[in-house]
Amino acid sequence: MKSLYIHIPFCNRICTYCDFTKVLIKNQPVDDYIEALIKEMKTLEHRDFETIYVGGGTPTALSVKQLEHLLSFISENFTVSGEYTFEANPDEVTTAKLDLLKYYGVNRVSLGVQTFNDDILKVLNRSHDFNDIFRSIDHLEKIGLNNYSMDLMYNLPGETFDDIDTSLKYVEELKPRHISWYSLIIEPHTVFYNEIRKGRMKIDDDNKEAEKYIRVMDGLQNLGYPQYEISNFSVKEYESAHNKTYWHNDNYYGVGAGAHGYINNERYYNVKPVPHYIKAINENDSAVKETLRLSETEMIEEEMFLGLRMTEGVSKERFRMKYGVCLDEYYKEELTSLKEKRWIWDDGLNIALTDSGRMVGNEVFMRFLKSS
Which residues form the signal peptide (predicted)? Predict the structure, then answer.
């Protein structure tokens, strides 16, 4: 087993764009949730992992006492041979919490910056401001937790190309090891979705969004951050090992409310509401709400969707070893058509998206559907 994902669904503030499983932490049964989470982790068959990722919500919304309780359990019951990541908000990165993370072996922090524009941060309902970003990074570097990922977004309401250039300038100044820079996606059941539906807010059209994406890609490339996935960039040897578990379509556990995992060709999904999760764990030792067993055709489709997100693409040899078939033969017609459009390249070892293919990624992915 390669990886474990641990979900902390609590936030001090709900962002206007967020559709993840999350709740405001105030008046929530946080201690009961952590006990249920620990109980679920005790049922896991494996104890040794290459990567552990604690995400949310906002894990750093936990108190120091709650954080230590969770971290000490992980430390006493699991080993992680590689990357151990904690998500954090800049305003919540206190010295006390960072000291705990480092003491218990966390070696990577994913910092939710989103933008350096204070006005846009307010629109996003983020709890931090410009100064918090620099203060938190200063804390990280002072205690030696300097392997951090800076999470950014583009195509935000009111954002200009100057805002992107400003973010690039601060990336150059701060020199993070890793950058995740995602386009804003308007999800149902979010504040932004309702604002757009009612005509009170606009975001750029697809053409302008594509222009901003190109500005992001070119800007980071020029700063020494090669792109290794559609929205991820890093200096050499600092790619996200945990996220590559997903993109390589490998097995992983997911624990917590709304978490999902992938074990032995079966995807499972935990119940989402925090009280329902706690009740399910306490009564059944399991919070799994739904399981989906994948056919071989579906596994192959996911191998393509996920693998093509990466710049290196899908390995033909890996494909053959996993599924016992030749990629060139299995998708012969699809590959021929996509090569003619110059949306994919083929070096004999891998199939990957070209620059133009990356701009129409979803359309490319649809070509590999055989089960529908």
Answer: none
Concatenating the DSSP letter of every residue in 201-256 gives -----HHHHHHHHHHHHHHHHHTT--EEETTEEESTT-S-HHHHHHHTT--EEEES
pTM of the predicted model over 0.90: yes
The model's pLDDT over 98-127, given as tens digits with 9 standing for 90+, comes to 999 999 999 999 999 999 999 999 888 888
Query: 290 pairs with which residues across the strands?
Result: 269
Burial of 299 (0-12, 13-18, 19+ CB in 10 A): middle
As a CATH number, domain 296-366 is 1.10.10.920
Rama region for 155: left / alpha / beta (φ>0; ψ in -120 to 50; rest): left
- Class of residue 202 by CB neighbours under 10 A (exposed 0-12, middle 13-18, buried 19+): exposed
Determine which helix (DSSP H) or strand (DSSP E) holds 297, and give its type and residue range.
helix 296-307
Torsion sign (Cα): 97, 94, 30, 2: negative
Instruction: Tell me which long-range contacts 198-206 makes (C-beta under 8 A, separation of at least 24).
Output: 201/157, 202/157, 203/155, 203/156, 203/157, 204/155, 204/159
Given this structure, which CATH class describes domain 3-246? alpha beta
Sheet with 344-346: strands ordered across: 314-315, 350-353, 344-346
Residue with tokens 């110059």: 342
Centroid of chain to Cα 4: 13
Who contacts 152 (Cβ-Cβ below 8 Å, separation ≥6)? 113, 114, 115, 167, 179, 180, 181, 182
What residues does each domain of the chain span? 3-246, 296-366
Number of Cβ within a 10 Å radius of residue 340: 9
